[in-house]
Amino acid sequence: MGTADGNNAPLWGGRFGSSPAEAFERLNASIPFDVRLAPHDVRGSIAHAKMLGEQGIVTEDEAVELVRGLEVVLGEVEAGEFSWTPADEDVHTAVERRLREVAGEVALKLHTGRSRNDQVALDLHLFVREAAEGLREGVFAAMRALVEVAETNRDVVLPGYTHLQRAQPILLGHHLLAHFWAFERDLRRLEAAREAADRSPLGAAALGGTPHPVDPALTAGELGMLPPVNSLDAVSDRDFVLDLLYACAVLGVHLSRMGEEWVLWTSAEFGFATLDDAYSSGSSIMPQKKNPDAYELMRGKTGRLIGDLNALLITLKGLPLGYSKDLQEDKEPIFDAVDAVMLMLAVLPEMLRTARFDNERMRLAAG
């Protein structure tokens, strides 16, 4: 459990007469999953430390020492050299513990004018902003691959389908670019999620601000964000997480629909296309098999994406304004969704480029 002054009391344990039960510590700990917020936590703390110095809440020298120490911690985090300990309750405790080891007692002043409520909210804002941008890059890469494959096969004809019955001939490029335009809408949803995350909650403290003369606009500007408007909303808001989860779920649906098509196209019954061996698997008992596992996983993982969105919606629906520990459950769904979509987007462009089409079979099927 994280400590405030080197004893066994947690940061929040001032009024408590005994340490938390071991079973409760395990339930309460978030360090197993929120470690990935560490770089965002440190960057937010650097901005906060600079503001504390600018406002005279700490001396200029103390602010310099805090920033210097935090930059050391950030370097360790980014290099994968940061050591997590069993005593770390959460990412904030771990960072502040290491900062104290690096910078000394001045580290105890870092938390001045800040609560873990606005701190963790900021970490999540920064994560969502970065993740949305990374996902956009992945979608752009898939869109470029679709255009390249459509251009390469510009004269290829295949059947268009309604009710999964042959309807009328269309160009393969026209079909592929239908997915391009679905991805274009995904880009807009991801941009909306990034924009929603681009507001700093720092300055809200626990829920009603702080008596220290903090400058939320200064901190937000240091992070390239807008300042908070309402302190209670700032620590309660998780809409930006829902926005990214929704964008991931819809993007997943689009990937799943594409996956279903390729599962059909590469089957013996259709025979329209063949996947490169690098993106296929075989059977341990039936050597003739060539399975489109990557596209099947795109279908399968989409169910998880929808579940991640649903899970956070259900968590949030009954919460009053202000921080509740339920909000600790906001991180694993978004981490899972972002990771799943990034895996799918990483494999898709080259899987499209290296596939081979049976032009004659498609033309005959088109009639």
Automatic annotation (TrEMBL):
GO terms for cellular component: cytosol. The keyword Amino-acid biosynthesis applies. Residues 15-307 form the Fumarate lyase N-terminal domain. Its EC number is 4.3.2.1. InterPro entries: Argininosuccinate_lyase, Fumarase/histidase_N, Fumarate_lyase_CS, Fumarate_lyase_fam, Fumarate_lyase_N, L-Aspartase-like. CDD domains: Argininosuccinate_lyase. Keywords: Amino-acid biosynthesis, Arginine biosynthesis, Lyase. One of its GO terms (biological process) is L-arginine biosynthetic process via ornithine. GO terms for molecular function: argininosuccinate lyase activity. This is Argininosuccinate lyase. The lineage of its organism: Bacteria, Bacillati, Actinomycetota, Rubrobacteria, Rubrobacterales.
